[in-house]
Amino acid sequence: MGNEAIARGALEAGCAVAAGYPGTPSSEIIENLAKAAGERPIYVEWSVNEKVALEVAAAASFAGLRSLCVMKQNGVNVASDFLLHLAYSGTRGGMVLLPCDDPGALSSVNEGEARHFAKLVEIPLLEPGDFQEAKDVVRFAFELSEAIRGLVMVRSVTRLSHASGDVVLGQLPDAPPSARFVHNGFVLDPMEGPVMSPPVAYKHGVLQDKLKKAVEMFEESPFNTYAGPEKPELVIITSSAAGLYAKEAIGLLGAEGSVGLVKLGTTWPLPPRFMERQLSRCDRFLVVEEVLPFLEEHVKVMAQELSAKIGPKTVYGKRDGLLPAYGELNPDIVTSALAKLIGKTHMAAPPEYAATAGQRSFFGAPNRELTFCPGCPHRASFWGIANALAADGREGFVCGDIGCYSMAVLPSGFSTLKTLHSMGSGTGVASGFGKLSPFGLTQPVVSVCGDSTFFHAAMPALVNAVHHKSDITMVILDNSGTGMTGFQPHPGLPRDALGKDAPVVDIAAVCRAMGARVEICDPFDIPATQKTLKNLLLEKSGVKVLILRQICALSPEKKGKKKFDVAVNEEKCLGENCGCNRLCTRIFRCPGLFWDAEKKCARVDTVICAGCGVCADICPAGAIMKMEN
Q1: Are 335 and 343 in contact (CB under 8 A)?
Q2: Is the CB of residue 411 less than 8 Å from the CB of residue 377?
C-alpha cells in the first residue's frame, strides 16, 4: 500500500523519530512505523495534535536525527503557526512533513490542499506519482532536507496512500542514530547556535537561498520525467496520482504518437531549465492535477517568464473549465478533456449503462444512508440529547465538530447538530453563543466533542468558555479511542502508539481543574442521561460538562462481544398501529433493526446487532426484549 511504501522509505532513510495525529488517509504511515519500532531504532508517537507532532519531530531534527511528521491535509492548518517559524529557523537532521490530501473529501468534510502551505512558508514540495516513488521520494526528501538544512514537504493523496502496487525495497541502515543538541555556538550559526526564527530579515533571505539550492537539485531529479514523441501535438503536465489517470487517458485514445507526458515529482518550486525543455516541445499543454490549479498557475507563470525564449504557449486545465476544480479526477474525466483537445471522441460510458447505474447501487445492494454502526454509543447519546432539548422546550441547539459524531447533522443522529466545523470548534462556537444573553438569546447552548478531539483542540475552547463565564453545556462523547480513524490511542488511554503502558490523563479531572461542573453518565442509560442533561440545561452557573462514557462497539476490546441478546416480541409489537408508528425503525433506525413488511412488525438482525440493548429502552410498547448474556 502507498502508506506502507512511505513508511518503508522513512525507515530506509534512517528516520529516528516519527510523530503525527490520526486522520484518513494518512493514519497507516504512523501505524506501520509503530509496528517497526520493535525491530528498528525509531521512536513513534501519536501526538495530541498536529502542531505538537511537528514540534516533537522538530526537536529530533534539532538534535541531529532524521524525523518525520505525518498528518492529513486539515492538520497542516493546525500546525501552521509552528510551521511558519520552523521554515525560518531551519532544521539540522533531515526532516520531512508528509500531509495526505483527500481529493473528493472521501473521508473528510473538505478537500482542502496542503500544497499551498509549501509556497506560503517557502519550503520545497515533492509529490510521488506511484507506489515505488512513494518510497523513493520520501528517502530523497530526507537527503534534500539535509542538503538545504530545511524542512521538506512530501504530499500524498488518497488514491496513492490507500491503493497498492509493486515496490522494490532498498537496504535498511545498520548504524543506530545518535542524538545531541548543540546550542552554544554563535547566535546565527545554523548548526551550533540557538535554533530560532528571528532575526526575520536575515532568516528570510537564508530561506530563499535554500529554495534556490533545492531548485538546482530539482533540475536533475529522476522524479521529473518526459515520455512521448519528440515533437508532440500536445503535452500533458501532471503530478501525483493524476499522472496515472493521464497515462491511462493517452492509452485509451491511442494517442501515444501525438501526446507527450511530463510527470513532475518536484512540483514547487518548478525547475526552470527542465521546464524550458518541456515547454519548448509544442505550443499546447494540458495540466492534470488534483484539486485546485496549483501546478497549472505555476506552469503559466513559468511559461510567461520564458516566453522570450520559447514563444507564446496555451495552457489548458482547470481555470478554463476543461477539468473540474473540485472533486476527484478519474481516467474518464481526463480522457474526455484530452479527447476534446486532440479532436478525438471518447464515450466514458454508454448512455444506457449510465442511466441504469444512476438508478441502482453496485451489485444490486440497497442504498443505505450514512448512519452510526449497530450498538454505537453516539446514537444513544444523540437520542438522549435530542429528547432532553425537546423536553426543555426552549429551542436549544447543539454545536459540533469533526468525528463519527458529525453524522448527527443527519437523520441518523436525529438532525441534532446545528453547526459543524473543525476539530474543537463546536465548543469554541458554543462559547460565543453562550455570551449572547445580553442580546436576547435565551436558547440553551450545547456543544459536543469526542475524547480524542477534547485533547486535540477542545481544551482551549473550554478554557475560554470557563474564563468568560459562558453559559454552555459541553458534552464529551468518550468512546475510548480515536474511533473514526482506527482506534489510535490518545492521552486519555493507558497505552501509547507503541502499545506500551502510559499514564492516563483523566478528562473529568481536567475539566474540574478548569473550573467546570462535571457529570458522568453511560449514554446507554437513557433515563439517567436525559435527567442529568435536563438539570444541567436549567443551571445558570457558567460551563457544565457532561461526559457520556461508553466504549465504541467496533473497538478491539468490545467487537463481537454482546452484553444482551435482543429480540422482538411479535405479539406486543404493533408497528404501524402503535402510537409510536414504528419509532424503532423509522426514527431510531439502528441498522440492527428492520421492518418486516410481511409480518408487520420490527425484527432484530442478529448478525449485526451489537447487543447494546438501547432499543429495548426506547420502545414505548415494551415489545423489544433484552436478555443479559
Answers
A1: no
A2: no
- Provide the 3-class DSSP secondary structure of residue 352: helix
pLDDT band at 104 (very low <50, low <70, confident <90, very high): very high
CB count within 10 Å of CB 438 equals 6
Q: Do domains 225-342 and 564-628 have the same CATH topology?
A: no
Comparing 582 with 9, the larger pLDDT belongs to: 9
Max Cα separation, the chain? 87
C-alpha cell at 555: 473497538
Relative to beta strand 266-268, strand 125-126 is antiparallel
The Cα 256–Cα 254 span in angstroms is 6
- The angle that helices 200-219 and 272-279 make with each other, rounded to 10 degrees, is 40
Cα 624 from Cα 312, distance rounded (Å): 74
Residue 349: its pLDDT value, please? 72
Domain 564-628 CATH assignment equals 3.30.70.20: yes
Handedness of CA 219, 224, 230, 235 (dihedral sign): negative
Which helix (H) or strand (E) is 107 found in, with range?
Answer: none
Exposed / middle / buried, residue 87 (Cβ in 10 Å: 0-12, 13-18, 19+): buried
User: What CATH topology corresponds to 377-549?
Assistant: Rossmann fold (3.40.50)
Reply yes or no on domain 225-342 having CATH 3.40.50.920.
Answer: yes
Tell me the CATH number of domain 2-219, given options 3.40.50.300, 3.30.360.10, 3.40.50.970, 3.90.960.10: 3.40.50.970
- CB-based contact 396:444 (threshold 8 Å): yes
Domain range annotation of the chain: 2-219, 225-342, 377-549, 564-628
The larger pLDDT score, comparing residue 45 to residue 356, is at: 45
- Give dist(CA 590, CA 83) in Å, integer: 43
The C-alpha angle with vertex 72 and arms to 487 and 50, in degrees rounded to 5, equals 80
pTM above 0.85, yes or no: yes
CA distance 287 to 21: 32
Residues facing 151 on adjacent strands: none
pLDDT in tens, 389-413: 999 999 999 999 988 888 889 888 8
